[in-house]
Amino acid sequence: MAVDRRYSEREENGERRAGTFGRRMGEQMFHRLVDLGIALSAERDHEKLMEMILLEAKEIYNADGGTLYLVTDDEQGLSFQIMRNDTLDIAMGGTTGKDIPFPPVPLYREGAPNLNNVASAVYHSRKPSNIADAYQEKTYDFSGTKKFDETTGYRSKSFLTVPMINTEDEVIGVLQLINARNAKGETVRFQRALQAMIEALTSQAAVALENQLLIQQQRKLWDSLIEMIAASIDDKSPYTGGHCQRVPVITKLLTKAACESEEGMFAAFDLTPEEWYELHVAAWLHDCGKVTTPEYVVDKASKLETIYNRIHEVRTRFEVLRRDAEIACLKAKLAGEDAAEADAAFERTVKELEEEFDFVAAANVGGEFMDDADIERLKEIGARSWIRHFDKTLGLSPVEAMRAKADPPAPAPAVEPLLGDLAEHKVGKYDLGELYNLAIRRGTLTAEERETINDHIVVTIKMLESLPFPKKMRRVPEYAGGHHEKMDGTGYPRGLKKQDMSIPARIMAIADIFEALTAADRPYKKAKTVSESLKIMSFMVKDAHIDADLFALFLRSGVWKEYADQYLEPFQIDAVDIEDYLPAPDLLTRQAG
Q1: What is the reported pTM?
Q2: Could you tell me which residues are beta bridge partners of residue 91?
């Protein structure tokens, strides 16, 4: 009896010790899972997250290798994301920068679920698979694995394959471990006791990956929206569309140079990945307000242009006056007047009309400055009269008819000026008057049209400030809305000075100007060469319109050349000595010490 009692006590003590050990192991595993869940939730880098999942699973089982698959976008395959094998020293995918050369594992063959491959079978069954020896397994096709082993001299034996199921109860990926190892380094079967740990890990990993994929999808959607807005501006005006795409290029090049610089005001300047994306969004949307700008204003290449160039109407009137002169000449001859004098009078009139039309046509182009004498001559030409014989109230749109009814034109036949500023030319805030537009002293835009052009930045700021940007993107409106401000406070729309603007906002101002100066697709100006553009910008530095430090960096870093080589026409890239354009030392920011 005493022997039996001692044996029973030893058995109870052994069970108690085993139970205590098991509980301790369980507690360790639980704490490990908790810590891992926190780490997975905190990781923002998608590639690092996937690596963390696979490497942690490998460590739990001391597995020699493993693969993490994700379901492809079309849900037709499992794409290789991360591959590791210690024995073969294989590390591909993820942060390694090495692409995995294998095609996705097909989930379907001829329309039916692919159950031959263990990874795809686990996807469909939604249950783990624990295989002791692949060479003895009859359920799945391991011919590819055996061929791999023949090539490498490896021996793939035990496999643990687990589905990754998200909160929507969808399989988003598969985790596969190969060759569990014991303390002696021998390949053994994956212990079923630890399998629950791996299943819990894959469950946590699926949630973390789902969050990452949702973030990626949201960013992809947002980027597509940005590109759609730029494309809509492009469709409306191909001239500004190219601008919207090129300004971000210069912005990022100059910002990168500022981040890499260790000198002066840039020594402490740097951007986090989130701040880089914030700048990316701002650069792409810096002119989004132009979607509201009338296209005839944006693209106005001549003074009489609205939806079309009205110089053709004016030319027709000159044609009418020429025909009137020719008819008068013929009538004079029929009336018995001196034919030579009639012809001479006709030729004088034709010559005057040709000279006057040439002058009006040249004024319409807007290439030369119009002084007081030019404007006075326009008025004299415009005072010529011609007779309209047809009713101006016919064939009008409903809106035009309403305006004509409110201020009816003279009934035909009516004498009208050759160049008129008529009631019908008043459209909203715009004055489409012919003399009014032809008398623009410089360029092709009236004061009202220029105000509309300038207002696009106000609309841009209004549009962007209405968006619920997250905290890490709250400066998008500031960056995008500051590219027409000047360092001396004379810019628009807010009259900010240098000290009121961040470095990225000042960078965008330089990018916007350089792109506009060198653009070869503007209808209203010729493309300038690089040297011409840099010269103009150097004067803008002296006038405190753009940041001197950033312009010096723009020159010294070679950003101008990198952009020019990629985007400008060959004839624009001429010889440049940056010393000719560098700001004077007294214009640069002085650093303490």
Answers
A1: 0.68
A2: 84
